[in-house]
Amino acid sequence: MILKELEIENFRLFPYLKITFSDGINIISGLNGQGKTSILESIYYLALTKSFRTSNDNHVISYNKKHFNIKSNFVSGESDKKVIRIFHSSSEGKHLFINKKEVLKFSEYIGTVPCVILTLDDLKLTLGGPRERRRFLDILISQISPVYLEDLKIYRRTLQQRNALLGKENKGDIKNQISIWNEKLIEHGSRIISNRLDFIDFLNIHLSEYYNKISTLSDKIGVDYQSSLGDKDYLSDRKRIPVRFEKKLNLVFKYEVEKRKTVIGPHRDDVQFFKEDKVFRDFCSQGENKTLVIALKFLEWEYISKERHIKPILLLDDIFGELDEVRMRGLLDFLKVIGQAYITTTMQDKFKTHHTSQKFVLKEKRLYDA
Ligand SMILES: Nc1ncnc2c1ncn2[C@@H]1O[C@H](COP(=O)(O)OP(=O)(O)O)[C@@H](O)[C@H]1O
Ligand SMILES: [Mg+2]
Q1: Where in the chain is the domain with CATH 3.40.50.300?
Q2: Are 204 and 223 in contact (CB under 8 A)?
Q3: Nearest ligand 1 atom, CA 32
Q4: Is the pLDDT reported for residue 354 higher than 80?
Q5: Which residues, 6 or more positions from 156, have their beta carbon under 8 angstroms from its beta carbon?
Q6: From atom 2 of ligand 1, which residue's Cα is the shortest distance away?
Q7: Rounded to the nearest whole angstrom, what is the distance from the C-alpha of residue 252 to the centroid of ligand 1?
Q8: Was domain 1-114+310-370 assigned CATH 3.40.50.300?
Q9: Beta carbon of 142 within 6 Å of any ligand 1 atom
Q10: 13: DSSP letter
Q11: Which ligand ends up closest to the CA of 35?
């Protein structure tokens, strides 16, 4: 998908802005606070129907305004044109339209405009808590499979209901009713784990190569899905996951009643990275961590691209100040093969010699050709 034109209204600091983009690399430079990230945020909305900075859509509406609007023209291939619009107001909520027709289920829309974003916040991906890593997997796989997104929704709802039951005082009720929730938890949870494992397998094949391409070293990087279901054997045979899940639920039942919550399942799983045989986060330098995060994001891009046969839009938010020459070159090399990309930077000069891109400067809420 190529984003040709973007029009935003009452979005963050912009009362109105209309931009025509290049099919390749778009570089948006400007001082801090000029609205660079906000432009990427509006593009991210078109992909995921939400922000990457806040979970509250009202925060995105310009101060003292009642709604925002994001309108866009996309093309894919020769003839496929789509006008995608997102409208949000605090009173009417969020509405999404493709070619003026309203899309009622957002979960069916996700993946229409695949997108991969890299911000400084993503450095937490490897060093932060497991929640960040699960989020990474979930956003990625949701863009590939609407079924996954649906599984996630049902799993979360089931988890809430199961936890509510486990919180009851009447232990007899718990015993009688738990199996209904177990069944659902196992069905949707197993599919979630299985989909995540597919991506982890893909990472294990390619991660070292990508990591070394960026760092110009030759390290062996591995990744391991650490499931709360324990026992690694089922990993090679996905059909055995539900059986394992059920066994483990029975095993921890007493403990769950005591704790009053669900203690196993994909909501408790994590991903661990290794360099050679050492746990990456325990030993890595800041530079190595940046390399790993960039490699992961590239592989996210590759995976979506391979599974969907659509090149995701790549958003790089202000990351170049943090990169040394070697990593910067690795990144720019990768950009040669990528479809459409948006790069924001405060350092226009870094891209002076980068001729294959469209360059913009953002100043006083307006965008100029650089
Ligand atoms: N809802 C909003 N309405 C108006 N201005 C906003 C809103 N949210 C953020 N801003 C302003 O937008 C500016 C930051 O924009 P941002 O896109 O982060 O800039 P940059 O990435 O160029 O540093 C800040 O000055 C902030 O006060
Ligand atoms: Mg910014």
Answers
A1: 1-114+310-370
A2: yes
A3: 23
A4: no
A5: 267
A6: 12
A7: 48
A8: yes
A9: no
A10: T
A11: 1
Comparing CA positions, the residue from 139, 124, 136, 130 lying closest to residue 268 is 130
The model's pTM? 0.95
Beta strands in the chain (DSSP E): 2-11, 14-20, 25-29, 67-76, 80-89, 93-98, 101-103, 115-119, 221-226, 270-275, 278-279, 313-317, 341-345, 357-363, 366-369
Phi, psi of 360 (to 5 degrees): -125, 150
- Token pair 């995608």 is at which residue? 84
**What ligand has the least distance to the C-alpha of 59?**
1
The residue whose CA has the least distance to atom 3 of ligand 1 is 62
Which residue owns the Cα nearest ligand 1 atom 15? 35
Where does the chain hold its CATH 1.20.1050.90 domain(s)? 127-308
pLDDT digits (tens, 9 = 90+) for 142-194: 999 999 999 999 999 999 999 999 999 999 999 999 999 999 999 999 999 99
Residue pLDDT, tens place only, 279-291: 999 999 999 999 9
3-state DSSP assignment of residue 178? helix
Ligand 1 pocket test, candidate residues 12, 56, 57, most atoms within 8 A of CB: 12
Strand ranges for 184-340 from DSSP E: 221-226, 270-275, 278-279, 313-317
The reply to whether ligand 1 has any atom less than 6 angstroms from the CB of 180 is no
| Ligand nearest to C-alpha 90 | 1
Pocket test of ligand 1: the residue of 8, 9, 10, 13 to mutate, having most ligand atoms within 8 Å of its CB, is 13
Give CA–CA dist 294/300, Å, rounded.
10
Q: Which fold has domain 127-308?
A: Glutathione S-transferase Yfyf (Class Pi); Chain A, domain 2 (1.20.1050)
Q: Which ligand 1 atom is the nearest neighbour of the CA of 60?
A: 1
290 lines ligand 1 (CB under 6 A): no
